[in-house]
Every structure is written in C-alpha cells, then in structure tokens.
Amino acid sequence: VQSAEIGFSRRWDVSNRVRNTISNTLSGMVTLIPDISLRASLSEGFVPLTAAAIAPSTVTTNSNVTITDPRRGNVATVTQIPTYITGGNPLLRTEFSRSKNFGVILKPRFLTGLSIAVDYREIVRRDTPSSPALADVLNFPQDYEGRLERAAPAAADIANGYAGAITKIDLSRINLASVWQNRFEYRINYRLPLPT
Q1: What is the DSSP letter of 196?
Q2: Average pLDDT of every residue of the chain
Q3: How far does CA 195 lie from the centroid of its chain?
Q4: Where is average pLDDT lowest: 14-18, 120-124, 182-186?
Q5: How many CB atoms lie within 10 A of CB 64?
Q6: Which of 109, 111, 122, 168 is the right S-S partner for 83, CB 3.0 to 4.6 Å?
Q7: DSSP letters of 125-157?
Q8: CA pair distance 159, 130, nearest whole angstrom
Q9: Starting at the edge strand that comes first in sequence, how are the strands of the sheet with 36-47 ordered?
Q10: For residue 150, what are the contacts with CB-CB under 8 A and spacing of at least 6?
Q11: How far, CA to CA in Å, does 54 sit from each of 51, 59, 89?
Q12: CA 144 to CA 31: how far, in whole Å?
C-alpha cells in the first residue's frame, strides 16, 4: 500500500417549515501501487420538503371525476365523488437517501496521462414525497390504505358483480416506502502534454 486517505463531512440544514436535518459523508481511498487506487464512500442526505408539499390538503365535495373503475365495469365514466382530496399533506416526512459508492482508478505507467475510473453506485431513497396516481389507487387499493373508500354495494351492484360506489378518493401527497437505483459509471481521461 502506497497511501491511504479518509475523509468525513457533516452538513446541517435548518428550516422554519420542516425538521432540521443532518447529512454525513464518509469517504476513503487506498493507492495499492502507482497504477491502481481503490475508493469508497457512504453518504446520507435529506431533501427538505417544499411549502406546497406540506400545505393542508384540498377537500372537494361532490366532485365530478372521470374514472375507470376496475371493480365497476372498467369503463371510463364521469362519476360524482362525495369526498375528493388533493394537494399537500402536513404529515409528510422528510425524504432520506443513502448512497454507497465503490470504485477503482487505473493510471497505467506505460501510458502516461491515461486515467480510467470505474464506479458502482447504489442509491436508496426512503419517504420520497409523491402524489399517487388515480389509476394506481383504483387498481391497487391495498397499497394505499385509507385512500379509497366505497359504499356498501346496492342490489344492482351485486347483480352485476360490482363493488360499491366510490365515496372517497384521497390523492394528497404521501411518502413512498422506498425507491432504489444501481448504476455503473465509467470515465476515461487522457491528458496529452502540449509542447512548450
């Protein structure tokens, strides 16, 4: 091992509208030989919520909405919804993300000026604020507890094999459970010295 580096940083974010947040980054790099270096980092961060995201929800009564209800014929129809909720949500939590990075840097001595870097990055975000799509709430109500309510099916509904009419739809913002992504990054640089 020729050299080793380690670094740590911390950031404070203060807001008068959401909770204060602290973000940390830990990084390190080891040079095994002049040609090869290994590096890694771990970062944690928060995304402050906007004023619109945490604003009170808008509740509309007897709103006419075009919906395609998979449990009532699956045909697009204009339906009167007794309680229709959209907009922000004061109970939203701040989005948290964690990023892991592992990489290798190659600087072959036989080709001065060439640098090749390959990195693997993994990012996980939790509690990402988002407005649920109407189609998702209708098709996957089990994933949106409390966001869709129905009346008891009438006799005609039972005869047609339909569920009860919708009495409430809530499309105000929610925190998604988690979102993740993985990716590889490649960079090739060649520094050509110019004659003096």
Answers
A1: -
A2: 92
A3: 50
A4: 14-18
A5: 10
A6: 168
A7: EES-EEPPPHHHHHH-GGGSTTSEEEPPPPHHH
A8: 38
A9: 3-13, 21-33, 36-47, 95-106, 114-126, 178-190
A10: 163, 164, 165, 166, 167
A11: 6, 15, 5
A12: 50
Per DSSP bridges, beta strands 178-190 and 114-126 are antiparallel
CA-based torsion, 101, 44, 90, 143: positive or negative: positive
Beta pairing class for 76-87 and 166-170: parallel
Question: Do 181 and 123 meet the contact criterion of CB atoms below 8 Å apart?
Answer: yes
The owner of tokens 């036989």 is 110
Of 55, 63, 67, 57, nearest in space to 141 by CA = 67
The pTM (predicted TM-score) of the whole model is 0.70
Can you give the pLDDT at residue 17?
A: 58
Does residue 19 surpass a pLDDT of 80? no
Which residue has tokens 């402050």?
48
Could you give the CA distance from residue 115 to residue 33 in angstroms, rounded to a whole number? Answer: 14
For tokens 């309510």, name the residue: 149
Mean pLDDT computed over 157-180: 94
- Percentage of the chain exceeding pLDDT 90: 76
100-113 pLDDT, tens digit per residue, is 999 999 999 888 89
**Count of all residues that appear for the chain in the document:** 196
Amino acid at the residue 28: G
